[in-house]
Specification:
The structure is a homodimer of 381-residue chains. With 381 residues, chain A is of the alpha/beta class. The first copy, chain A, has helices spanning 3-11, 23-36, 52-61, 70-77, 95-103, 114-123, 152-164, 184-202, 227-242, 255-258, and strands at residues 18-21, 40-45, 64-67, 86-88, 108-111, 128-132, 168-173, 209-211, 248-251, 262-272, 281-285, 305-306, 319-325, 334-344, 352-356, 377-380.
């Protein structure tokens, strides 16, 4: 917790639940990444947190933006960013959304299928397009399905097809998985990309860009490598696979930029046991899976949770095991049942808890009003 | 699909995705349930779909309402329903929300823990309270965790404690699980309830009500028993366990009342394969898990999906296996990958698909704007 957030809790302390984001951390994370990996052009993944305040900080810092929909395009253009700094990274686009983007000046688009290329050729003629390829992402906390990307052999033929359709085959993209902590994954993925560059060169097509996707972590329950470790792994792999000829490298951090910048304050609604002899208590918070903590599905993201508002008092309070759940009447609205969590034995209804590193993928995931609970409010300081 | 919905698709046909709800079905389902199970007083579970239009139909028909939060209380009172027709069925309530309900006239509250009883005693003095007990709900499509309820032994002592605190111990509640199709579950749950009635009677406390919860199904991919089968099972079990002395029975249908009344129309955004030799196609729709289809988590609810707007043409079109996914950049936004689904081989971007029996647990689950996609719109006809 930053000093600025601690002061906000002390001086403002709005009704729970809410997210508070320290914008200085956002700016610092962007600067850290640029310093650690100067070779990469940063495209902030707007979906992680599309708040205007965050976009403004990153726009001023010089970031580019990865967008997923017309509404995200509008959000970025509305803070004064030129369309040349946007990449439409969603491989699944309605043709009218492609046309919308093109009309507003976007000239860089992702794809992973022939049907998408045909839409792009019709509604974004001449645009730069990059193909997302499937790579191994075992080892990620929020593992990816095969939903995005195609196999490298298909990518090769689709990039040729793009040229035939009058588009500019510009590069390849991959995503090693969010919270990816196995550095070798970057190496094998970059190997796939380099092979595609060489194969296309033989076909007479020169690619210019490798999109490294996201995957840089925020700090949840486990400690993770600092960004310099990632940067080193990426640069080593880049050098190994691309030698002296460097294409452009794009990177699309979302969680890394805003995750640690935010903290959710929630309130304990109830502490109970199901039977007199139960060892574990159930702790019910006023935020759950449908109020912003969707990424606890399958207990995938294990947020750090404290009760001392950053005072350090938790370290000396007697603690006991708990199951943590949300406030809705939905029995699936349980945050942590298998993952061992401990909270103070004297925890009681009305106590405040802090859920750390929640700046990314929380506000926009929250439901419009499930069980009548309003969406997560957010404050930017 | 009803004729009225078919006409709506033909004549109005708004941009996708949207939910359309046939209010005649809502009214009919309520009437069917009253006829099949006249012994039970119906409390509509507002969380299933809190739309004003639905509340109005049910209010006119004479329904009572099960609410989960102050916002749901407001929604029901706002259609002219008296507070005596409300049950605050959430066992997890902030004390200020209890006070809000009490101030607005609500006098019936659920609980499952001592801490909740203490809040109720302070902020809803003298109110009727009922204890939710844990029962076996294996066999349900959307199985319940142990989040709600306590074991029967604890329920007994809590109901005594309620009396000591000046509350009126009114009855017991259970929930056999949503989409519960194993009729024996009702029998064993009612046995637990009857045992509690007898045990409390020995303690000098007469209970008056059994809350049967929800669990009545909508029609998804599998055919399920009609409501008369459930009603018969419930009445048989009631007679067996309660003999000639019948307490009041409350039932809290949500899905049963509004599930089948609604249909989502969506659009195919993309059809693709990941490699040239793949057997299964990926079909991407403009609605997914974060746009209203949250209950496809773990492929629990298997919605019926068609592409012929109810014309029957699907029965003669050549079909092939598909994986069905949503439109966001979230790789977890996959609807059906393991469950075998087939869609027409000539399916193409821009085609409309109908997702049936989606009137319940869709609109309010949808995210406020994940990836920049707006919440699910709904039309009531």
């Amino acid at each position: 917790m930053t000093d600025r957030i601690r002061r906000f809790l002390r001086d403002v302390d709005p009704p729970t639940p809410f997210l508070v984001v320290d914008l200085e951390v956002v700016g610092q994370r962007y600067a850290d990444l640029r310093e650690a990996l100067p070779v990469a052009e940063v495209f902030y993944a707007v979906k992680a947190n599309p708040a205007r305040e965050i976009l403004e900080v990153l726009a001023r810092a010089g970031s580019n933006f990865d967008v997923a929909s017309p509404a995200e395009i509008d959000a970025v253009l509305n803070v004064g960013v030129g369309a040349e700094r946007l990449s439409y990274g969603n491989t699944i686009k309605k043709e009218r959304d492609i046309a919308y983007a093109y009309t507003h000046g976007v000239r860089l688009f992702a794809f992973d299928s022939e049907a998408e290329l045909e839409k792009l050729a019709r509604s974004a003629p001449g645009a730069r397009v990059f193909c997302r390829v499937l790579v191994d992402n075992s080892g990620a906390d929020w593992p990816l399905s095969r939903k995005f990307g195609c196999d490298p052999e298909m990518a090769r033929s689709l990039l040729l097809r793009a040229q035939a359709l009058g588009l500019e085959p510009y590069g390849v993209a991959f995503h090693v998985g969010s919270q990816q902590t196995v550095l070798e994954r970057w190496n094998s993925a970059l190997g796939v990309a380099a092979d595609l560059f060489q194969a296309l060169e033989k076909d007479g097509v020169t690619l210019h860009m490798v999109n490294l996707g996201g995957g840089l972590p925020a700090r949840y329950a486990r400690e993770v490598e600092g960004v310099s470790g990632y940067a080193h792994a990426i640069m080593t792999a880049v050098t190994q696979h691309f030698g002296n000829y460097f294409p452009r490298f794009f990177i699309e951090p979302g969680r890394y930029i805003v995750g640690d910048a935010g903290m959710i304050q929630a309130e304990v609604v109830l502490v109970s046991r199901k039977a007199a002899e139960d060892l574990k208590r159930w702790v019910y918070l006023d935020i759950g899976r449908f109020g912003g903590l969707a990424e606890t599905e399958g207990e995938a993201i294990k947020y750090r949770i404290g009760c001392d508002a950053g005072s350090g008092a938790d370290r000396t309070r007697p603690m006991g095991p708990v199951i943590i759940a949300g406030p809705t009447c939905d029995s699936a609205d349980v945050l942590y049942e298998k993952t061992p969590y401990e909270l103070p034995l004297d925890l009681a209804p009305g106590d405040k808890v802090q859920i750390h590193a929640t700046g990314a993928y929380t506000t926009t995931y929250s439901s419009v009003g499930f069980n009548g609970f309003e969406p997560l409010r957010a404050y930017f300081i």
